[in-house]
TrEMBL record:
This is Lysine--tRNA ligase. The gene is lysS. It comes from the Bacteria. A motif ('KMSKS' region) lies at residues 295-299. It is an enzyme of class 6 (ligase). It comes from Sphingobium lignivorans. A motif ('HIGH' region) lies at residues 50-58. Pfam families: tRNA-synt_1f. It is found in: Cytoplasm. Its EC number is 6.1.1.6. It catalyses: tRNA(Lys) + L-lysine + ATP = L-lysyl-tRNA(Lys) + AMP + diphosphate.
Length: 533
């Protein structure tokens, strides 16, 4: 449980801010105008289905929910809790495509995920493995949350009273759900999924309520009629019913969900009311898409893993990318990382100089919970990528730091500790994605003329000249009609393609200052060797 000390000025600015976390938090102010009864903490929940490896879409919900939680604390000063709930008693419906030992997993279809062996051989079950991956990452980000296992809650009896309540309102739940189902599904649907005493599988069979207060139901299992308690792990609920039961049992006040679950939220909300509870506040966010524009799926493994992003980009850039425009569909693939890194740094650099209302609309305010670090960087990530791209796939950190000191003499790990991480990310990104694609082309005749002029002016340049002076030289050559460029961007494109081997590139003045004038002249010489005579 957390509470925060917030200044009156910040609270007043937050009450009128149009940033989406504050708009969401104001729903909770309306829900509890005088605070939650008895001073109880407002409960935020995120759900996770550990049927596949966690990916960024999974992490997305925890981050965005945490951001709304912080916004509510700024608005209200009230205590809050965050529960990360794992639906790990769910039956394994299909074998994920991106795990080993798939034949072994196929033997456990229908079994609760906490009873499916870990295909990686590290944990006591597949669910334990996936839960541990998620928790390790959430812990590494410093999230304040309480992890809750569905299996522990069901088997430990914590849901027993709620399960009896479901049986008491069995017909009302059926009346809500049956109209939403196809006719053939209606014939077999049950809100309660008993666990088979024979196979241990979660059964999709109709049930009859025998004694709601005792939790007894009747069903058929492989031809035998079974009477069994659904309490203490004897059954699991269908997930829409489970979701509603959980909201009521735990007292959940806020939970968001993807746009694909709008209908599920509607049905679960009706069920929650039928159970005598109040559904939580929340909103539906748009989905992340892969490079092909397809929805990211845990079982397909077609999205970025958390580990992949952190190999090539910073933690803060991941949070920044997730924060922005939650109601717009966004592609999520390796190619978006460099821009996310630099956009994050740009917003971070601007934060200190902004008035309070602008700060509350700045993504970094929400990413850092209002405590935004002020240490800047001497170069952009894009510029670093261009540098290591020219240096080649075998470039080392030591070599990169040597070039950095050409541009910023005080560039040391001690002076810029975050820069060391960016250098490592740049080297990895270049090695795996940039170096294999670089293709330098020969300059055309008019481009070669311009390159010779650039070389001559660089040769005559004062050794103390900075990036801005170099940029002015580059700019003047491109504007000179003598060299035949219809537009200035054609000159820059020629520089990128002939010197760097890429279609896009950096501000050339900054790049030449970083790479060094003599090294840059060597690049020009190599390009001119391939020019037409």
């Amino acid at each position: 449980m957390t509470t925060r000390a917030i200044s009156p000025e910040l609270r007043e600015a937050a009450r009128v801010s149009k940033a989406w976390p504050y708009e969401e938090a104001r729903k909770l102010l309306k829900r509890y105008p005088g605070g939650k009864p008895d001073g109880a903490p407002v409960l935020f929940e995120t759900g996770y289905g550990p049927s596949g490896l966690p990916h960024i879409g999974t992490f997305n919900e925890v981050l965005r929910t945490t951001i709304v939680r912080h916004a509510y604390e700024e608005l209200s000063g009230a205590p809050t809790r965050l529960v990360a709930f794992s639906d790990d008693m769910d039956g394994l419906r299909k074998v994920p495509d991106n795990v080993p030992n798939q034949a072994m997993l196929a033997d456990y279809l229908g079994k609760p995920l906490t009873q499916v062996p870990d295909p990686f051989g590290k944990f006591e079950s597949f669910a334990h493995h996936n839960n541990a991956m998620l928790r390790d990452f959430l812990d590494s980000y410093g999230f304040d949350y309480e992890f809750v296992s569905s299996t522990d809650m069901y088997r430990g009896g914590q849901f027993d009273d709620a399960l009896k309540n479901v049986l008491r309102h069995y017909q009302a739940i059926m009346d809500i759900m049956l109209p939403t189902l196809r006719k053939e599904r209606q014939a077999t649907y049950s809100p309660v999924l008993p666990v088979s005493p024979k196979s241990g599988s979660v059964l999709q069979v109709p049930i009859e309520v025998v004694d709601a207060d005792a939790g007894i139901v009747r069903f058929t299992d492989e031809g035998d009629v079974i009477e069994q308690s659904i309490l203490s792990g004897g059954a699991k609920l269908q997930w829409k019913v489970d979701w509603a039961m959980r909201w009521v049992a735990l007292g959940v006040d806020y939970e968001m969900a993807g746009k694909d679950l709008i209908d599920s939220v509607t049905q679960s909300s009706k069920i929650a009311r039928a159970l005598g509870g109040r559904p939580p506040e929340g909103f539906n966010y748009e989905m992340f898409l892969d490079e092909k524009g397809e929805k990211i799926s845990k079982s397909k493994g077609n999205g970025l893993s958390i580990e992949q992003w952190l190999t090539y980009g910073t933690r803060e850039s991941l949070a920044f990318y997730i924060y922005r425009e939650p109601k717009a569909a966004k592609q999520l693939h390796i190619g978006v990382i460099p821009r996310a890194v630099d956009d994050y740094e740009q917003f971070r650099a601007a934060y200190a100089g902004q008035p309070l209302d602008k700060q509350l609309g700045n993504p970094v305010h929400h990413i850092h919970n209002g405590d935004v670090p002020q240490d800047g960087l001497p170069v952009t990530f894009g510029l670093l990528l261009n540098l290591v791209g020219v240096m080649g796939a075998d470039a080392t950190e030591h070599q990169v730091w040597a070039y950095l000191r050409n541009y910023a003499p005080d560039a040391t790990v001690e002076r810029y500790p975050r820069l060391g991480g960016l250098v490592r990310h740049a080297l990895a990104y270049n090695r795996d994605f940039i170096a294999p694609t670089l293709r330098r082309r020969a300059p055309e005749a008019h481009e070669a003329m311009a390159l010779r002029e650039l070389d001559a002016q660089l040769a005559a340049l004062d050794p103390q000249a900075g990036a801005e002076e170099i940029q002015n030289i580059v700019y003047a050559i491109g504007k000179d009609p003598h060299y035949g460029f219809e537009q200035l961007r054609d000159w820059f494109k020629a520089l990128y393609e002939t010197l760097l081997g890429a279609e896009q590139g950096p501000r050339m003045g900054s790049f030449i200052a970083l790479y060094g004038v003599e090294n840059s002249r060597a690049l020009i010489a190599r390009a001119l060797e391939a020019a037409p005579a």
